[in-house]
Amino acid sequence: MKLIALIGSILLIALPALAVENGGVTFSGESSGQAVNEAARESLADSWNDTETHSGASIYTAQHFGFAYTPSTSYTLNRVEWLAGGIGGTVTVAIHADNGSGYPDGALLASATYSESEVTGWQGGNLDTPVALTAGTTYYIKYSPVSGAFVSDATGGTLVAHSWYFDSNGYWEGPGEFFYWMARFYGDISTPTGNISWSEIKGSF
Questions:
Q1: Which of 17, 69, 70, 107 has its CA at a distance of 20 to 30 angstroms from the CA of residue 46?
Q2: pLDDT higher for 110 or 30?
Q3: Distance from first CA to last CA of the chain, Å, rounded?
Q4: How many domains does the chain contain in total?
Q5: Which residue segment(s) compose the domain that 72 sits in?
Q6: pTM listed for this prediction
């Protein structure tokens, strides 16, 4: 607490920013956001708000986060990245099938466990098994970040709904649309399906 001034009989006091928990993250009110201009890899297949400015105003307090993900294009997902930093540690990302619960507790399709640096930037890991995603089909992403690290959210863009899970509670909460989540999804979108005849190839010219 800091004393500012005494005006008449009124003492002005500067109070520290109050931490507010919402959706499994804590908002400090003090943004350290910056534009992180890291070009995506050539195999970028999809993304959430990856060209926006990183907020840097919140940290993770829940242990797990869940996202419903419905790709608009079929592709084979092999890597997921988040805009991360602040605190280093071990992170796990898992891809689950949709079992109708609205949460990432369906069949596990693939996962990645990797170490994140405290240096803010795009960080992620390759899935242990590439997952063939079908356009229009819903999958679930379970993200278990470093507690206290910066949330992968932007100052603007498109809101992305998420659910959250505190180990101390033992159940999923949400979902809710509170943040402009930032993520990059890498994979192969050029895998042909079926046989293509020579006449079809000639007809395309």
A1: 107
A2: 110
A3: 73
A4: 1
A5: 2-33+46-190
A6: 0.80
